[in-house]
Write a structure and sequence with these properties.
Largest sheet: 6 strands, antiparallel
Structural class: mainly beta
Radius of gyration: 20 Å
Length: about 140
């Protein structure tokens, strides 16, 4: 038996096997920047594809800057196309760390989702917000 042929066959088999293993989500920081409108109107980021079907694979959001002022809060959640909420909301304070949340267990995954937000106060104020988010972090909770 030729050692080189066996080694090549094993290497090729391993490469084929690894190519069929799904890629794990990584904990990325995708920037967002949009206007928050008054009277709790929704605002959204551009969509990102959430590949995972594991609802326990957390999404995250961080509010870095808010035109409403220092230490103010806005409410964030994920929606799929058509405006259906796929996660519970999280109230984020400007300048605090990122929050990680699950999507609803009924969400099948493999869909484009948007970060959605609104003012935490019921008033007519409008302001810009920015920060980062990730639709699937690989963090399982």
């Amino acid at each position: 038996m030729n050692f080189k042929r066996v080694a090549m066959a094993v290497g090729l088999s391993g490469a084929l096997l690894l190519s069929s293993v799904p890629v794990n989500a990584s904990n990325d920081n995708h920037n967002y920047s949009f206007r928050i409108y008054g009277l709790k109107q929704n605002s959204q980021s551009a969509g990102r594809y959430r590949q995972t079907k594991n609802y326990k694979n957390n999404w995250k959001v961080k509010l870095v800057s808010s035109g409403e002022g220092v230490h103010t809060k806005s409410i964030f959640w994920l929606e799929k196309a058509g405006g259906k909420n796929i996660s519970e909301s999280v109230k984020k304070q400007q300048g605090k760390g990122a929050s990680y949340r699950r999507v609803k267990s009924s969400f099948p995954g493999g869909r484009t989702v948007m970060l959605t937000a609104q003012n935490s106060n019921f008033n007519g104020s409008e302001f810009n917000v920015s920060g980062y988010w990730d639709e699937e972090t690989g963090r399982i909770q």
